[in-house]
Amino acid sequence: MKSGFKTILGFAVLLALAACGGGSRHPYGIPEQFNDAKPWAWRGTVPAHYEVHGVDVSRYQGDVDWFRAAGAGVRFAFIKATEGGDIADPQFQAHWSGAARAGIPRGAYHFYYFCRTGAEQAAWFIQHAPRELGALPPVLDIEWTRSYNCPKRPDAETVRAEAAAFLAIVHAYYGRTPIIYTTVDFWEENEMWRLQGYEFWLRSVAGHPSHVYDGHHWSFWQYTGTGLAPGFRGQVDLNAFGGSEADWQAWLAARVQQ
């Protein structure tokens, strides 16, 4: 997930513009309950054509008013728990419990690094992400990192093999098939579609996934990394579920942790 530090002043200006209209129209394609600091010129099938939307968060979002977010139409949240084999997100517990209190279905995700094995990272994730009633399936966020400490870029076969190891261990522990989140370049370079039997959460901020990912099936679509939503002090990733309201209810019934 693409996140970073922003200035408080910048946040205040963006939110003020979103609240009062800022002299411009709501960006086409973004659901009315949200906004976008840097909107794409959407065409064809746009995010607003989908009924169910949610967010993904990490420590960069800071404190979140989850009740306000729920009231504004945030229907799900994926929350960063861990990265690599030795980093735990310090905001995880606050986000995890806050979303639950607000009645927002939430799942935990792990940000993958290429300097530890998939098995090591699965064990680290399991230490920090609870196996809890009502939780969404766990997520493997696997993309090329920009880390000075871990600049490795293994070959595609190794990438898929280590990802498969992570996924198998996590599946066995939580009893739910994990979801794979990835980006366009990583998808193409590592032929991630070869990992069969998994749902995908695809990042595509400049076009519908059906075009960008050559028609591959997806369950979640991350359509902007510069979203603005009630309850969040700054920018947040916005995502759509790839189905109707009825599809969403069926998806939840089949996949939440029992």
What does this protein structure show overall?
The protein has 258 residues and is an alpha/beta fold. The chain is 31% helix and 19% strand. The chain has eight helices and ten strands. α4 links the parallel β5 (106-111) and β6. α4 packs parallel to α5.
Quickly list its features.
disordered N terminus, eight-stranded mixed beta barrel, 10 strands, alpha/beta, 258 residues
Compact summary:
The protein has 258 residues and is an alpha/beta fold. It has helices at residues 8-20, 66-71, 92-101, 118-128, 156-174, 184-190, 209-212, 245-255; strands at residues 35-36, 53-57, 77-83, 87-88, 106-111, 139-141, 179-182, 199-203, 220-228, 236-241. 31% of the residues lie in helices and 19% in strands.
Look at the structure and give the mean pLDDT: 93
Shape label? globular
Spans of 5+ residues with little confidence (pLDDT < 50)? 3-23
Q: C-alpha Rg, in Å? A: 18 Å
- Work out the strand percent: 15-25%
Distance between the termini: 27 Å
Characterize the biggest β-sheet: 8 strands, mixed, barrel
Instruction: Tell me the strand order in the biggest sheet.
Output: 2-3-5-6-7-8-9-10
Spell out the helices and strands N to C. HEEHEEHEHEHEHEHEEH
Strand pairing plus helix content: what structural class?
alpha/beta
Let me know the number of strands: 10
Helix content: 25-40%
Helix count, DSSP H or I runs of 4 or more residues: 8
